[in-house]
Amino acid sequence: MKADTVIVGAGSAGLSALREVRRYTDDFLMVNDGHWGTTCAAVGCMPSKALIEAANAFHRRGTFEEFGIRGVEGLRADIPAVLARVRKMRDGFVKGPEAVPDKLGDRAISGRARLLGPGRLEVNGQTIEARAIILAPGSSPVVPGPWRDFGDRILTTDSLFEQTDLPHRIAVIGMGPVGVEVAQALARLGLEVAGFDAVEGLAGIDDAEVLTVFRALIEAELALHLGAPAELEDAGGAIRVTGAAGTFEADAVLAAMGRRPNIDGLGLDTLGVPLDEDGLPMVHPATLRIGDLPVFLVGDANGYRPLLHEAADEGHIAGRMAAPDAQDGKLCRRAPLSIVFSSPQVARVGPPLSELDDTDLATGSADFSGQARARMAQTAAGILRIHADRVTGRVLAAEMCVPGAEHLAHLLSLAVEARMTVADMLAMPFYHPVLEEGLRSALRDLAKTVAAAGGSDLSGCKAIGHDALD
User: Fold this and answer.
1) What is the pTM of this model?
2) Could you tell me the pLDDT band of residue 428, with boundaries at 50, 70 and 90?
3) Residue 434 pLDDT > 60, yes or no?
4) Is the dihedral of CA 253, 258, 259, 261 positive or negative?
5) Phi/psi of residue 87, each to 5°?
6) Quick one: DSSP state of residue 328?
7) Same structural domain for residues 268 and 135?
8) Helices 405-417 and 436-447 sit at what angle, rounded to 10 degrees?
9) Please, are residues 431 and 410 in contact by the beta-carbon 8 Å criterion?
10) Longest dimension (CA), the chain
């Protein structure tokens, strides 16, 4: 069998690549192993956010008395009903990807692909020759081998949302973005939760000042054991989890230690290019090409930026680069943007602080514990830090744990992408009263230390005690 282009994997990156491939040819095949549905829609960002929304809605009962709303004692979280709603929403999200094989007909193949070389692969015992191959095999949760002995008491994000109910005590191991999101959501739904991680970090936060603020806020809701690997042992029906600063007896453990690329048996070793210790080849981030071969590796599988919007971008880039008339140029990557949907939300724009040259770096910050709009909503907490070039005033990066970070981060990512300066941002209108005024406060603080602040903003004025102006 022959095809101009073969796409392996029908996740976010693969479907994005498909859209671009169809611009230049109808002679393509899409091969997918397992469920025809994206990680995001089926087990990742979409069902997890549905769970978080339910958890946050229930958690707000703790603020009702202050708002003057009585009768909170009668509220309870019906966990089976919460999970049923999550699955119902999830099933709606995956309908599109699940319909792909029917729409493609014989151009869609269910089976596991294995490379036989740069232009050949095998699927279901049949050899396929292709001019270009786009690999988007996705990823799977990491679960240490010995933990599998605990059977279905070990959950992953791939299995969590299939549960019809949850036990009362859950240990979450791995406090990166996903672990923090789910651990806090489960705690807010009334479960007893403890979080473990081998490092002293949370939610992928790089800025030490942001981490300090965020850790105190999370520890107010659940126990944290950070700084030592978690060890599991059977405790007579329970699982005893031992980590830094103590132990926790759990009815179930959620393994949230990240995902690994689905490259086992993919045949990357047949391409004749060097592979690293994890079995991955070097991939150029602006072309997604492996070496100088007509083979591309995109999405979670290359480990570059394992986020949905990045996977979609990579599929787009690979689809363009795989065209027979593609130029030898490169496609630009967008400014890095990541968001963790905890409370407060965590977000980073641009490179992490640890990767910035601090020689000419200026930083401005805003403490949201006193931010007016956040105080009205009883969500006043957190810190926003913005970094700029001290000489030019150009905004370079930001990191934060604040209410509404998903929105503030988008404004900042637009600024970074457009190479705006602090003065450019301060020249924009800010309504009152909104959370964005906290962004303005950080920019004004930053303007005091950059040489090219300029403009006619009030950043150089002393505070007058008026929330709308300070």
Assistant:
1) 0.94
2) very high
3) yes
4) negative
5) -65, -35
6) S
7) yes
8) 50
9) no
10) 76
